[in-house]
Design a protein that fits this description.
With 325 residues, the chain is of the alpha/beta class. It is built from eight helices and ten strands. Strands 3, 4, 5, 8, 9 and 10 form a six-stranded parallel sheet that branches. A two-stranded antiparallel sheet has the order 1-2. A two-stranded parallel ribbon has the order 6-7. Helix 3 packs across helix 5 and helix 7 packs parallel to helix 8. The radius of gyration is 45 Å and the shape is elongated. InterPro entries: Glyco_hydro/deAcase_b/a-brl (IPR011330), NODB_dom (IPR002509), Polysacc_deacetylase_ArnD (IPR050248). Keywords: Membrane, Transmembrane, Transmembrane helix.
C-alpha cells in the first residue's frame, strides 16, 4: 500500500508582499515628513512671531488712544477753567462799571463826531396780589410823585375790584396777570389749570379795561418749587410764552412779605441796599390790606431812586426782563 506524500504549507506570497508594500509606504511618508518638518516648524514659528507682533501693536495702539483721551480731557478741563476765569473777569468788570456809574453817573461813549450816553438807570416798581384796601393809597402816592408802576393783579369781581382795574389802566400804569385765585394748590395742580386761571383773569380785566394782560408773574416766582418740582415750572414758563404771555420775576425784594406787617425801615433799607449796584432794578412790593407800611415806605423810596438818577418805567412785553428760570 502506497503512503500519501506529506504536504508542507508555505506562506502566501501575496500576504507577505502586501505587508512589505505597506511598510515601504509608511517609510516613505515618514521620510517625507522628516523632510518637510523643518518647514512646518518654521511656519509655526513665523505665525507665533507675527501674532506676538500684532498683539504688541494693538496694545500700543490702545495705550496711545488712552493717552490721547487723557490729554483731550485735560485740554477740555483747561478750557473750562479758562472760560470760568473769563466769566469771572467779565462779571468783575461789570460790577466795577456799575459801581462807577453809581458814583459818577453814565459813562459817555465817544463816536467819531458825537457822544452817546449809556442807557439811563431804570427802575420798575411792581405790586403783586391786589386789588386791596391799600391800592388807592398806592395809586395816590404814585400820582403825587408822578411815577408809573406795574400791578400784577388777582381776581376780584367786586365793584371795588373792577374799579381798581379801571383806575390802574386809566392812570397810565401797566396791569399784569397774577392768576385769578392765587391759590397755589389750585394753580399749580397742572399746566392746564394754571392757564385756565390766567385766562379767566385776563377775560375779567379785558372786560373792565379793554386791556389784555399779556404779561404775568408766577405766584412765588418762576422758580417756585412746589409738589410738581422745578421741571414743571420750566415747562409751564415755556407754555406761557408759547401762548403769548411774557413773564417777569424781580431782582430787588422789598421784604415786605417776610412777615404779615413788615417795618417801614426794613422795607426802605432793603430797597436802597439792593438797588445800589444795579443799573436796572425790578422791585417787588405787595398790594395787600396788611401792607400799610409798604405805602408808608414808598415816598422815601421813590425820592431816593430819583436822587440816584433812576427813571421809572412800566413792564411790557419785550421790556427788560428778570427771569429766575
Amino acid at each position: 500500500m502506497e503512503r500519501e506524500p506529506l504536504l508542507i504549507e508555505e506562506p502566501e506570497e501575496s500576504t507577505s508582499s502586501g505587508q512589505e508594500r505597506e511598510q515601504n509606504r509608511f517609510r516613505k511618508l515618514l521620510k517625507r515628513f522628516q523632510q518637510i518638518q523643518p518647514i512646518l516648524l518654521t511656519f509655526m514659528l513665523l505665525a507665533i512671531v507675527g501674532l506676538s507682533v500684532f498683539l504688541v501693536h494693538e496694545r500700543m495702539t490702545v495705550q496711545r488712544l488712552q493717552n490721547s483721551n487723557s490729554d483731550f480731557r485735560k485740554q477740555i478741563q483747561a478750557l473750562q477753567v479758562h472760560d470760568n476765569l473769563v466769566i469771572e473777569k467779565m462779571q468783575r468788570i461789570y460790577r466795577e462799571n456799575e459801581n462807577f456809574q453809581q458814583k459818577y453817573g453814565p459813562i459817555p461813549v465817544r463816536g467819531m463826531n458825537a457822544e452817546y450816553p449809556l442807557k439811563p438807570k431804570t427802575v420798575y416798581l411792581t405790586f403783586d396780589d391786589g386789588p386791596s384796601e391799600v391800592t388807592p393809597a398806592i395809586l395816590e402816592t404814585l400820582a403825587q410823585h408822578n411815577v408809573k408802576a406795574t400791578f400784577f393783579v388777582t381776581g376780584n369781581e367786586t365793584p371795588f375790584g373792577k374799579e381798581m382795574y379801571r383806575r390802574i389802566v386809566r392812570e397810565g400804569h401797566a396791569i399784569g396777570n397774577h392768576t385769578f385765585s392765587h391759590k397755589y394748590s389750585l394753580i399749580y395742580a397742572s399746566a392746564d389749570r394754571f392757564m385756565e386761571e390766567v385766562k379767566r383773569l385776563d377775560g375779567l380785566v379785558a372786560q373792565e379795561t379793554g386791556v389784555h394782560t399779556d404779561i404775568l408773574r408766577f405766584p412765588g416766582g418762576s422758580n417756585f418749587n412746589g409738589s410738581l418740582g422745578i421741571d414743571f415750572m420750566r415747562q409751564l414758563s415755556r407754555r406761557c410764552i408759547d401762548e403769548g404771555y411774557d413773564y417777569f420775576d424781580w431782582n430787588v425784594d422789598s421784604k415786605d412779605s417776610e412777615k404779615p406787617v413788615q417795618s417801614k425801615e426794613v422795607i426802605t433799607s432793603s430797597v436802597k441796599e439792593q438797588v445800589s449796584n444795579k443799573n436796572t432794578a425790578v422791585i417787588l412790593f405787595h398790594d395787600l390790606s396788611a401792607k400799610k407800611t409798604t405805602v408808608e415806605a414808598l415816598p422815601e423810596i421813590i425820592e431816593h431812586l430819583k436822587s440816584q438818577g433812576y427813571t421809572f418805567e412800566v413792564l411790557r412785553k419785550g421790556a427788560y426782563s428778570v427771569k429766575f428760570i
